[in-house]
Structures are given as structure tokens and as C-alpha cells.
Amino acid sequence: MVIGDNALFRGNWHGAIPIEQNYNGGAIWSRGGNIIIGNHAEFDGNYVFSDRQACQGGVFYDDFFGGAITVGADAVFTGNFVFSTNYSAAGGAMFVRKDGQKYAAETGAITIGPNPSFIKNFAYSGSADAYGGVIYSDGDISFSDGATFINNYAKTSGGAITMGGKCDLLALTKDVLFSGNMAGGVVIGQSDDGFPVVENGIANAIDMNGSLFSSLYTPNLTLAAEERREIRFNDPITSRNEDPGRPMTLTLNRYTDGEGNVRDTDGTIVFSGELYQGEDTHLAASRYNSFLADATLYGGALLLEHDVVFGRNPEEITDKRYNSSLTVEKGVLEITGGSKANASSFTLSGPGAVLRPGESAFINTHNADLSHGFTFDMRHQLQAGPVFGPGLMLSALDSFTAGGYIGVADTGANAPRFYADRSWKQDRVFHVLTDVQHIHEGDFDGAVSQATGTARVDDPYAYTGTWSHRWTDADGDGYAEQLQLVWKADGTPISRVDPELAGELAVNSLWSSASNAAALGGNVLSRLSVPRLADRHARNLWGMGLGDFARQRSRGGVDGYDYNGGGYSVGADSGMGGEDEGIWGIAFGQLCGHARSRDFQGRNTQDTRMGSLYWGRLMEESNRAYWIFKGSLTWAETRNNMTSRLSGAPASRGKWNNETWLAQAEVSRTADCAGGWRLTPFVRMEFTHGRQDAFREQGGYGRDFGGAALKRLSIPVGLEIGRTDEWKGRPWAQSLRVSYVGDVLRDVPEAAVYSPYSDMGWRGRAVSPERHGLRAEYNTFLQCNERWSVYGGYGLEVRGSSCYHRVNAGVSRSF
């Protein structure tokens, strides 16, 4: 049977097929058939109820010949249930079993598409057992990508799932969550939506039941999460009716895809007791993953947190035929917050197996095999400092074998700066584990840094030293029971500054601030052209758009930058006190842009507000020659917001202000030549003074920056050639000026930089452009009518590895 997308099943009961005494399948009853339902299906309030028979499958019921159920993506199951007053009940939403049919080996399957939700489904009986609040099956169950199980309930076990066969829970692009699922307790009433109100219930996500046709099937639970995905059990998993001859298996971060390929994953599988803190019996049981299985981790991380217990305590197993194991082939075993891992045998299989104990971490076992070595991740001790406890408490009742090398997990996300931390400048001791039973045999071959492959750490950008291990008698009873990793620091400072930390982008901000000031200051001087100075109108209002762009290559080992900015300026000028006094003007503007580091991951957003006073005067020498004197004083304030992201580290952010002054003065002589051309030799003086505030970065590897200053005196000397023509009867003036620009005086900005993380300081220096350059500027002016005119310009300045572009375009009106 095939049903398309967006199907809705609501309020169906007893079964869609009216068969006498049928109390199975509230919505769909199938015997050996295949059911396929499309995406976005919704199953709400379907149920099976009886006081005369067992009730099974609130939505689906499929047995005897073991058909298959396939449901597409984004399915929602809410409020479905089975309820028998006097007989058993199973599968609040689904009941599927192979029913012992050997020829049905490929049937009895449940396949659920990505991202299903199962909320408030339940299985209950008034006087008998009830299993599987959502699913009861001894066949194959597969959740292809993500799933959410919240607040489901079964009276006896399997608050969400009771399984007797194979179950795959995959989190490939979406997470898996079990939370608030429950079994047992006492039902004391119903909520408004009909869901049982349970007192003293015990949290339970999945129950692996070995009695479901155990002659054919063994429960096999597979949990696999891809990197940055998570499978979280806020409720425990359990097992019952185990067969010592056929141990159950729990496979972590390994699965077989649809093409038969075995794939290992790097996500995180979490078992947490956070929701059930307290000493009451039902709360302690809600933190206890009481199961017997051979559990193997193949990658990623297995995290046990908040006082959770993972695996049945070996001391509770009286029949020694029943065994379990916990093996870390590869990946991280992280135990924190008083959590415990229990297994008959515990194995770390080599350097790929990582042990990451937090405060109060426990492993209880009969036999511990660490003879192949392992890797130790001291992350929690690095955070807690020297007051950290005794590390992992490993209680091996029968044997504890040590051997191989202990790897130091120093190649994680912050590997480039791991040993740059100030704490590594001194000797340090880390508590790896404590042999509770005083039973360990053999010893480890030594400690090895994963970053270097040896016990030595030598890095010019970090603190240096040597790793070793030792067994110590921490409790004073005469037996060396505590395994420690020992860091012996060389006691020398870091020899070189990491180029990523140098902070040159911050100091380079003074260059772009100065360029912003020059964008306004230079353009107001270009406004004082011959047409404007000879204009008979006394007042002029203007507005223009500005563009400021810089390309500065890295030079001399100093990081370069690329700057892009745009904005506007407005101004007014007027003749003051007659023609002999020239023209005075005032302008305001704003440029917004950003500078990017050339070599590293850094970006500085800059917002510059500017003001300028300017003056110009034209003095006639003869009918064909005249002198022009002009100058300006420009002030700019830049608000900087810098984000720096060092390799493998979170971003750090800093905010500060720059203040820049630019004084300019120019003298030129214009002579009219044949053909309507004008030649204008000129000389200009440009003095820039900038100041950068001190500031502190926040986050990441934040640094402290001291103040910095920029001083530069430049003398451009050049020639302008221009002419005035007509375009459609309107005066059109154009000019091109080319100049040599030399820096007579220059102090390149530099600032004191300090890293609290590394406890070291240095001088951060801005990039140093060439002292000599060439500048070309083109300006055009079109008189539209007696009062209105438009104008524009482009400037290019090249200084060796530096290239600056400035553009402007605007309109003016004379009065």
C-alpha cells in the first residue's frame, strides 16, 4: 500500500479493517504487506483500546508474515496509544514483528525518514505489562537521519522503544534526542490531552529485550552521529532477558550505509543524567543505563555527564556467564560530573583511543586492558587548574594491564597556540587515573606529544619543555596508585611572536584613517579650480560622493591590507571681504569601509566622520598667467571595530578610535598656451598627524594594544595640463595633473602589544609604504547653466607595493 505526501491520520481506532475481535492497528492493520507513506505525514490521536484482549499498534500493526513499514521525512506522531484494561499492550504507535518466520528474514522492518517527531505516545495496561511507548518490534528499525522522542510512556519498559532485533539511529545532518520518556511508576490520572499522569516513573528511552524470539534475533543497537551532530539520551537505555550465549551489541559511531559500505563517524553521543538529579530511588534509576552489551566506540566522542551510569555494574551480576565490554577503538571517552562506566572488561585500543576524564569520573570493571597505550586529554584539568581531583577512578577487580605510550592530546582546535598559554612556562602535573584496587601490572613506555611525536616540545612561538609519566603514592599507603603526566618546562620565554598575533591590522588602521582624511582634504582643494575662483557668484553649495580604496601588499615581514570605503561630503564656500580675500569654505563628510588583512583572517570595519576648512585665491600676473594659492585643514575621527580570527580559535574583537589631522598648502602658476591649453606647475605640502587609542580585545586570544601615532610630511611636485572647451554649448573644463610625491618626514605607526594568554609583549608595527611615489589626478567640470554645475574626478597614487585609488562625483549650485 502506497500513500502520498502530507497524509493525515487522526482519531482512528481499533483498526481500519472491521475484523471481529481485532484490537490491533488503530489506523493501519497489515499482515505481510508493505506500507509506504510519503513525506510530512501526521499521525495524531490514533489508538487501540480493549477490556477483552491485548492491544497492539496504536497507528501501525504488522505481524505474522512480517511486512515492512516505510515512512518519509518530517513525520509527526503525537498522542497515539494502546490501552488494555485487563491484558497486555505494546507499541503506542507501531507494532512490527517477524513472528519467528525464518523465511521472512528481510521483512519485519520499520524505516523512518529524516527528522521524525514522537511526542506523548504511550502503551498502558490496567493489570498486565505494557511495552514500547512508541515502537515495539523484534525486526529491523532504522531512523535514517535525526529523530526526536519526547515525553513518551510505557507502563513496563521501553518508554520510547522496545526492541528485540536491530535498531539504527543515525544523525547525519540532524540531531537525535530522547528526553522525558518514561516507564513504570504509578498512573494517578490523566492530563487534559488524555496522557497518563505518572508518579515516581523511571526515565527510559530504549529497552533491548532478549526474550523477543531470542532463538532467532539478538538486539543490536547502532548509534552514529556525523561531525557536529549529536545523539543525546537524557533518558537511559536498558536491557533485559539477556542470553549469555548471544551478547547484545551497542555500536557507537559506525554504521553500514544503503550500499553496504561500513562508515565511521565523528559526532557526539551523549548519555546525561541532568534532568534527574536527586537521591530518590526513581531519580537514581532514571540515571542508570542498566544494560549488558558489548559496546564499542569507533570515532567521535562518547560523553557521560551529570552523574549518569553507563552499563550494569559488574558487582550486581551474580551469574558470571553474563559478560559485557566497553572498548574504545577510536574516539574520545569523556566522563564527567560523577558519571560511571561499567563493563566486565574495559579496553583502550591504542593512540586513537582518547581518555578525557572530568571531575569525579569512574570506571568499574573486572579486567582493564591499557596495554596498547592511549591518548590523554587533560582539557578539564586545564580549565580547573591545580585543585583538580585524582583523575579517572579506575576500579579493576581482577586485572589491570598497562603498556604502550601515553599520548598527550595537544593537537586539537587550538593546537597552533596550545603551548603558547602562559601556564606552560612552569612545571605542571596532570592526574590521569587512579588504580583503586592497587592491581596494575606493567608500565607505560613513556609520554608522547601528539604535536611533535616525541616527548619534547620545541616551538619558537610557544613555551618549550618535556613530557614524562610517573606512578605516585597519592594517599600515603605505600602503593603508587596514581598515574600522572608531568610537564617539565625549560623556563625560557617564547622566542618569536606568532605572525598571526602580531596585530598589524590594528596599527594599519591609521593608514586608512589618513587616506580617508586625504579623500576629503584633497577633493576640497580640487573644488578650488580656476572656474570656481573666477566665478562672479559669491556663494556656492555642493555635494559629492566619495570612494577611497587602498591595496597595500605585505612588506618587510609586516602584514598588508586591502581597504574599500565609500561615503559622501557636503560643503559650502563663499567670497569673504571682496575679491582680494579669496574664497573660504567648509565641508563635512563620512566614509564607511573595511580593511582586510592580506595574510591572515582579520577584518576591521571603519566609520570615519570628517570636517574640513579650506581657502583659495587667484592672483593675476598678466592676461595670460596667474597664481593660485590654496590650503585646507581637515580633521577626521575613525571608529574601528576589528574582528580577528586566529587559526582554529574563536574570534576576538576590539573597538577603538583614531583621530587624524591633515594640513595642506599649495602654490601653482597657470599659463595659457596655444590651442587653448593651460600649463600649471605646482608644489604642495601635506602634513598628516594621526593618533590611535589604546584598547583591549575581547574573546579568543584577546590582546592589549597601546596607543600609536602617525606622522608624515609629503611634498608633491608636478605639472597640470588642462583646457576648457564647450559641450553642447556649455563650458567643459578638464585637467590632468601628474606629480612626484616624496615623504620628507615619516614616523610609521607602531604600538605596544601584550598577550595576557601568553604573558608576553612586543611592538606591533604598521606596514611601511615606499617613501617615493607617483600621483595622477584627473578632474572634470561641466557648467550646466548659470548656477548649476556637475563635476567628478579620479586619483591614483602608486608607492611601490602600495596603490591608492580615490574617486568623487558631485553637483554644485552657485548663488
Describe this structure as you would to a colleague:
There is one protein chain. A hairpin with a 7-residue loop joins β63 and β64. 47% of the residues are buried. This protein is mostly beta strands. The chain is elongated and about 120 Å long. The strands form nine sheets. The chain has a 21-stranded mixed β-sheet that branches. Strands 2-5-10-15-20-24-31-36-39-42-45-47-49-52 form a 14-stranded parallel β-sheet, with no helix packed on it. The chain has a twelve-stranded antiparallel β-barrel with strand order 56-57-58-59-60-61-62-65-66-69-70-71. It has four helices and 71 strands. The protein folds into three domains: 1-263 and 276-307; 344-496, no CATH class; 502-792, Lipocalin (Beta Barrel). It holds the Pfam family Autotransporter.
Q: What is the number of independent domains?
A: 3
Strand content: over 45%
Helix content: under 10%
Oligomer: single chain
Total DSSP helices: 4
- Cα shape: elongated
Q: Major beta sheet, specifics?
A: 21 strands, mixed
Q: How would you state the average pLDDT, rounded?
A: 92
| Low-confidence region ranges | 102-106
In whole angstroms, the N-to-C terminal distance is: 86 Å
Structural class: mainly beta
Number of strands: 71
User: Nearest-angstrom radius of gyration?
Assistant: 39 Å
Subcellular location: Cell envelope; Cell outer membrane; Secreted
Pfam families: Autotransporter (PF03797)
Organism: Akkermansia muciniphila (strain ATCC BAA-835 / DSM 22959 / JCM 33894 / BCRC 81048 / CCUG 64013 / CIP 107961 / Muc)
Protein name: Outer membrane autotransporter barrel domain protein
